[in-house]
């Protein structure tokens, strides 16, 4: 791989040690900073803004409802621009520490109707239904992503041309194989501090491509945990002057794309002989393939079309398939589950930029509620 100096992000050039002088200033006990975070009109972008609270919030209901200018986030028109922020989950703030918090919010329009990109609303309805609650659905999501330089090329790639072919980079070690591990390590720690159940990470097949895993998270928490982990990732990379893309196919051709494999199980699947329930879930998913593909990226299949080509460890977007330990199928049953006759399944179709609320909603409605 040829050498290239990190280009022109002003963030990378700022002296970060200066900030510590101000972060070392004592913070008044009765002043808590809350970073309200929400999904914008693209269904993929995150926005956030800060306010001061006078009390430490223990639950979302302790936090005030707030508003923002939806005409600046592709979510409203200027003449009727206010969108409501309803706090729904609280995490510790790994950037400001102390008692400060990150607050994940749902968005509601001026009529108090969920915004088009508030996929959490419907997901929560499904997760709150008695039949779903009883099954305690677990999700483990593998978030793949790629670091970009500010010019849009993958970080560390030569300006003209390409790095050496894929092969040595996956789970690699060494300066000729691995790019920006600092950000990966910082993100892992920050997630643990925040209370996000991050459970692993690895360098991916394409140089500058990485993955981390969240879970198992129960029900609605899966979506909450993944969205907050994405916020933390973008926020840390920003400090390093690096861009994170969740585009499912950042470089066309035989360079691997990025997915967000969703590992899913119910109480019945995890219990002895749960394999029968797994098989039944796969049968039901087969009948909903087209619908699921529409739910598995923010552009209703258009993004995944570039990724799910049937090559680069993917299945074809047009076909539904399943198999044991098979990475060219839509659904993979892990070898250990086939052997133990219980466990979980892996839905390999969700795009890296999917909304996890849409994915987990589709899975429980199809597999548990049989809708
Ligand atoms: P892969 O072999 O596909 O790369 P990973 O190790 O990257 O798998 O990810 C496995 C994911 O499966 C993790 O997110 C983990 O939390 C999740 N997982 C493990 N057991 C279960 C289960 N019973 N139900 C749901 N998810 C699970
Ligand atoms: Mn993985
Ligand atoms: Mn992977
Ligand atoms: Mn996987």
Brief rundown of the structure:
The chain has 371 residues and is of the alpha+beta class.
Quaternary state reads single chain
Classify the fold: give the CATH topology of the largest domain: Creatine Kinase, Chain A, domain 2
Order of helices and strands: HHEEEEEHHEHEEHEEHHHHEEHEH
Bound molecules: adenosine-5'-diphosphate, manganese (II) ion
Global Rg: 21 Å
Number of helices: 12
Question: What is the top-level CATH class of the largest domain?
Answer: Alpha Beta
CATH superfamily of the largest domain, please?
A: Glutamine synthetase/guanido kinase, catalytic domain
Describe the structure.
It is a single chain. The chain has 12 helices and 13 strands. With 371 residues, it is an alpha+beta fold. The protein has 2 domains: 31-117, Glutamine synthetase, N-terminal domain (Ubiquitin-like (UB roll)); 130-367, Glutamine synthetase/guanido kinase, catalytic domain (Creatine Kinase, Chain A, domain 2), CATH 3.30.590.10. Strand 4 and strand 5 form a beta hairpin. The termini are far apart. The model has no long low-confidence stretch (mean pLDDT 95). The protein binds adenosine-5'-diphosphate and manganese (II) ion (3 copies). The site of one manganese (II) ion has 4 residues, from strand 6.
């Amino acid at each position: 791989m040829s050498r290239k100096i990190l280009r022109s992000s002003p963030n990378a050039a700022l002296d970060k040690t200066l900030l510590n002088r101000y972060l070392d200033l004592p913070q008044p006990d009765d002043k808590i900073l809350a970073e309200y975070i929400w999904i914008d009109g693209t269904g993929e972008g995150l926005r956030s803004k800060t306010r001061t609270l006078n009390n430490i919030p223990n639950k979302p209901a302790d936090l005030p409802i707030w508003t923002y200018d939806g005409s600046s986030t592709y979510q409203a028109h200027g003449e009727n621009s206010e969108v409501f922020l309803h706090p729904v989950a609280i995490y510790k703030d790994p950037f400001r520490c102390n008692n400060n918090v990150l607050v994940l919010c749902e968005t509601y329009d001026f009529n108090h109707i969920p915004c088009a990109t508030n996929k959490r609303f419907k997901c929560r309805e499904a997760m709150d239904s008695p039949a779903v609650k009883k099954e305690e659905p677990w999700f483990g999501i593998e978030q793949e992503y790629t670091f970009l330089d500010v010019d849009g090329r993958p970080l560390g790639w030569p300006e003209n041309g390409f790095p050496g072919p894929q092969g040595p980079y996956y789970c690699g070690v060494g300066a000729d194989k691995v790019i920006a591990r600092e950000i990966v390590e910082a993100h892992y720690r920050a997630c643990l501090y925040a209370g996000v159940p991050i459970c692993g990470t690895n360098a991916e097949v394409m140089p500058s491509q990485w993955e981390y895993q969240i879970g198992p998270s129960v029900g609605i928490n899966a979506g909450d945990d993944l969205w907050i982990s994405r916020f933390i990732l973008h926020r840390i990379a920003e400090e390093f002057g690096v861009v994170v893309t969740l585009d499912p196919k950042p470089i066309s051709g035989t360079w691997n794309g990025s997915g967000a494999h969703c590992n899913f199980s119910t109480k019945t699947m995890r219990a002895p002989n749960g394999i029968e329930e797994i098989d039944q879930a796969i049968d039901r998913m087969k009948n909903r393939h087209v619908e699921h593909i529409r739910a598995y990226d923010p552009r209703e299949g258009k993004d995944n079309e570039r990724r799910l080509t049937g090559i680069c460890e993917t299945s074809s977007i047009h076909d539904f398939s399943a198999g044991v330990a098979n990475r060219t199928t839509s659904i993979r049953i892990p070898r250990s589950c086939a052997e133990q006759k219980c466990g979980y399944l892996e839905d390999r179709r969700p795009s890296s930029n999917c909304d996890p609320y849409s994915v987990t909603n589709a899975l429980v409605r199809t597999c548990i509620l049989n809708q």
